[in-house]
Specification:
Elements (H helix, E strand, L loop, with lengths): L7 E7 L20 H8 L6 H6 L1 H7 L16 E5 L8 H8 L17 H11 L4 E5 L2 H15 L3 E4 L4 E7 L5 H14 L8 E8 L6 E2 L4 E4 L7 H7 L3 E5 L2 H4 L7 E3 L4 H14 L3 E7 L1 H7 L4 H18 L7 E6 L18 E6 L8 E5 L3 H10 L12 H4 L3
Parallel strand pairs: 1-11, 1-12, 2-14, 3-4, 5-6, 9-10, 9-11
Antiparallel strand pairs: 2-13, 4-5, 6-7, 6-8, 12-13
Helix pairs in contact: 1-12, 5-7, 11-12
Length: 400
């Protein structure tokens, strides 16, 4: 095989599936965070035989403690390693942008004491109503706390977290979802410059007091990338850029040719499998949100482990649909250790697993200095000139 045999890259981003605290984790209060290993321990072992065959157990063992339930294999089917975050921060937008070759020089702003009056007052005036909350909180906790008052007053619930987010929660029967999206658009227009948060997030919910439940009609309104990313370069080269899950939100719809905004892992798996059968040359990029949204933030390691095992089974089934020129990459954007007291993201390394017929088996990629190495490599694999941060490892992995 030669370099020109790479026709498509299928980039699977397992939202929050980190693999050990980054060297600067102490600056974020994330000492001891290790999403994959700690999840496997809490669940009594991880049953992920296909990921094991690819080299996930080898990856874990190469950097310290093995992954319980996933042993190293003598002949890994993939090239494997890990990537260190280079951009400051530990949020979804930062991680995805860095994967796509865009490294931040300063973090998005965060609001540990809530948003300042100049933001809230402008927002209230623009939407014509008061708000509730305005503090850091768990999303499920704050709707339990303020949901009844919200239903009585009609005021939306505004909250944030350790991440750079402005979140608006409302009951679907009190504020219709289209109106909630309008409110988020208004907030996005206000939150610029020094207050340019990474994401404004719509958080609709349903139910009654004591039984409120968030729905999958969540929508993210991200700040636009400040320069071209991998997605832009692939699109400009006339190739497909197929975004699945919340990718369209993270990149503010820039650089896409097709998009399927799935709301959970099973829907994302189905969409990826469909596009793998049909898509032409280019990039398929998918975010698997449930690891983060349903299990990491809710401190549910058993649910997290089950989701990883379901992904493993699906991934094995995907193998029959792969074509000769396909390269599959599995990685993550940050951590969210469900076994720590925190319900926020964690500053972690992320796994790097690369396989497909054009890729050498068993190549150890070590620790990459930035997630951006991956974006640079994808552009290189597709033979697209691109001005991206990061160092390509194409020559290390491709068969000649």
């Amino acid at each position: 095989m030669t370099y020109s045999n790479v026709e498509r890259v299928i980039l699977l981003i397992l939202d929050s599936v980190g693999i050990g605290e980054a060297p600067d984790a102490h600056l974020y209060g994330d000492e001891g965070s290790d999403t994959l290993r700690n999840t496997a321990k809490a669940a009594g072992g991880l049953r992920a035989p296909y990921l094991g065959k690819l080299g996930l157990g080898n990856l874990a063992a190469a950097f310290g403690e093995p992954l319980l339930g996933v042993e190293p294999t003598p002949r890994p089917m993939a090239a494997y390693g890990r990537m260190a975050p280079k951009s400051p921060g530990k949020d979804t937008t930062t991680g995805h942008w860095e994967i796509a070759g865009l490294v931040l020089d300063r973090p998005f702003p965060v609001y540990p004491n809530g948003f300042p009056p100049e933001i809230i007052e402008r927002f209230e005036e623009a939407i014509g109503t008061k708000i509730l909350g305005n503090k850091p909180a768990s999303g499920t906790a704050i709707i339990n706390e303020l949901g009844e008052e919200h239903m009585r007053t009609g005021y939306p619930i505004v909250y944030t977290s350790a991440d750079s987010v402005f979140q608006i929660a409302s009951h679907e029967e009190i504020i219709p979802v289209p109106r909630l999206y309008e409110m988020c658009t208004i907030a996005r227009e206000i939150l610029t410059g020094e207050h340019g948060v990474g994401r404004v997030i719509a958080r609709p919910f349903i139910g009654v007091k004591g039984a409120f439940k968030r729905t999958e009609r969540r929508k993210d309104f991200s700040i636009k990338p400040f320069r071209k990313t991998l997605l832009d370069y692939v699109k400009e080269a006339g190739m497909d850029v197929i975004a699945i899950g919340k990718i369209e939100d993270i990149f503010a719809f820039q650089g896409l040719t097709h998009s399927d905004h799935t709301g959970n892992n099973p829907a994302t798996m189905k969409s990826v499998a469909g596009f793998v059968k049909e898509a032409g040359r280019g990039l398929i990029i998918a975010n698997f949100i449930c690891f983060d949204m349903r299990f990491g933030h809710r401190n549910d390691p058993h649910g997290y482990a089950r989701a990883l095992e379901e992904f493993d089974q699906w991934l094995k089934g995907l193998e029959v649909s792969l074509k000769d020129g396909d390269v599959v990459v599995i990685t993550a954007d940050h951590g969210c250790d469900p076994t720590t007291p925190s319900t926020d993201h964690s500053r972690e390394y992320v796994p790097l697993i690369v396989y497909g017929r054009p890729v050498k088996q068993g190549v150890f990629l070590g620790t990459r200095g930035s997630f951006a190495d991956l974006g640079s490599t994808v552009a290189d694999l597709l033979e697209i000139p691109a001005d991206l941060a990061g160092m390509s490892f194409k020559n290390e992995i491709l068969r000649r």
